[in-house]
Amino acid sequence: MEKNFKRTLVTTALPYANGPVHIGHLAGVYVPADIYTRFLRLRGEDVVMIGGSDEHGVPITIKAKAEGVTPQDIVDRYHKIIKDSFEELGISFDIYSRTTTDIHSQTASEFFRRLYDNGQFVEKTSMQLYDEKANQFLADRYVTGECPHCHNPRAYGDQCEACGSSLNATDLINPKSAITGNTPVMKETKHWYLPLDRWEAQLSRWILEGHKEWKTNVYGQCKSWIDLGLQPRAVSRDLDWGVPVPVEGADGKVLYVWFDAPIGYISNTKELLPDTWETYWKDPETRIINFIGKDNIVFHCIIFPAMLMAYGDGYQLPDNVPANEFLNLEGDKISTSRNWAIWLHEYLRDFPGKQDVLRYVLTANAPETKDNDFTWRDFQNRNNSELVAILGNFVNRAIVLTHKYFDGKVPAAGALEPIDRDTIAEIASIKEALTANLETFHFREALKEAMNLARLGNKYLQETEPWKVAKTDTERVATILNVALQICANLCVAFEPFLPFSSEKLQKMLGLKDMKWADLGRADILKAGDQIGQAELLFEKIEDPAIEAQLERLARIKKENEIKAWKPAEVQPEVAFDDFLKLDIRVGTVEQCERVPKADKLLKFLIDDGMEKRTIVSGIAKYYKPEELVGRQVCFVANFAPRKLKGVESQGMILSAENADGRLVVVGPTGPVTPGSQVK
Description:
alpha+beta; Rossmann fold; Methionyl-trna Synthetase, domain 2; Isoleucyl-tRNA Synthetase, Domain 1; 4 domains; 5-stranded antiparallel sheet; 4-stranded parallel sheet; 25 strands; 42% helix
């Protein structure tokens, strides 16, 4: 039997403050969490939504060093960008704080110290890479070297981004310190570990027996970890940025960011509710829901719960952890390091006033059960064919017709016909399905049900044809438009969790406010005689140029990444000097250049080689217009045997270099040279 709770605490994974948030973060965590929280608020429930920036850890220190600023400078910059963009998108946190606050440092320190004093940690010494010049231990990301799998020379100590292999820093071939470039040495260091194996049986009972209702991806990943046997996990590391380990003799050591960050949920709740925070964490009648992405499942379902079990004192464990899978972008994995992403703050700049469009598309494409893909063409199509053509079109028709026939006043309904009764009954049916999907975290299906309500409205108007009925039956058209307006009022509630800005705009048009979930399904929300406002467009079409600009941006990024990933071709086997001398490389002047008919890649050159004119055919038409090359001097191999290309005899080969972007660049002297001069 399902337990009834008095209140709900919603937490969202803390975004890392070394960069802005992107659509993958939104689809995986923040939009679903906001939908659920808004739904509970509409039902009048006691719910608090907690968020904040994760501001400790190695990537932040790396970025700070690269920019020549302090880690605090980095987190201050990105915390503001993240917080402001969340607010503009309508992510309705009750508090959005950070892990560099005093209250967080105190809470995290006290948490560690209690576990330490109660003997919940084990101390271990291990050998780690150490930079003698920088006088510090090296975190995995501070070590680079050759990947042992694909031999990428620029792999990191935790992962090779070329082949995707997970690594340990000691796996790298010829490791180097990213700080000084020196070769690190192995040195002994001591750390504290949380012995997850102590809590394995309790975690197994809690998850595998007690939460079989969890999403398949979450339950399956937890089961895999538990089946393999849980191992002790380090809770400290050698670093100068983070919450200091509150133990004597721990100089230069901080709490590991995975231990520090989830405590941020507690410290942020304390900051919001200093007098009542314990009610939301320790009262069995509080339901805790953690919204996360799939890369955080192990931390929120195994490690953080083990921390709470070890701490005791009544801390409640999460009731559900509805993690999503990953969202890809145009068929490729989103990558912050490759800038392959749609950043929220840039979207808000490029598409002002279209917050709800992004919320709609990300929910419609939510990666709830498997990885999904965002494409700009799908974004455009969903806006134009669904938000504009279905939802916006119905609302506009209902309000415009009301102003046309009843001066903008809600008409009184007369006797209902079967189509009216069936339509009203369908509203209640949609509410039931919508509610069930929201309660079980199926937000994509819930959104479909909300849009089905708009489809119902369009179908109703199309079948009843009030514009025709108005010519002969005023009472009947009044009933039709009353029903249509009641559907509009229901849409305000149904879409509020998903499209809060549009819902608010529609409520103002209808003269409504403070609507509740209990209003959904009613056919008497608007009263006869109520004055409604003029119709305003809820959505507008997105034209091709706006989408093409975004696709061009991604194309540029893809090309830049290809250049960054470019490596020179391997050097060919050695040749004898005498063999090289057999090549007669000379400089010639291009007198004529034209395309070879029926050959897209070929250009035909007439070259002055100092002795005569010679014809050479070269496959560089993709990169040059013929007129660009006339008058230029080029290097060519003069003693190749003639051969025919597309019917043209070529008497040599023009030399070109292949650039990192694949472009062929003609090789020639940097200054004027007498035609026929040999290259030596």
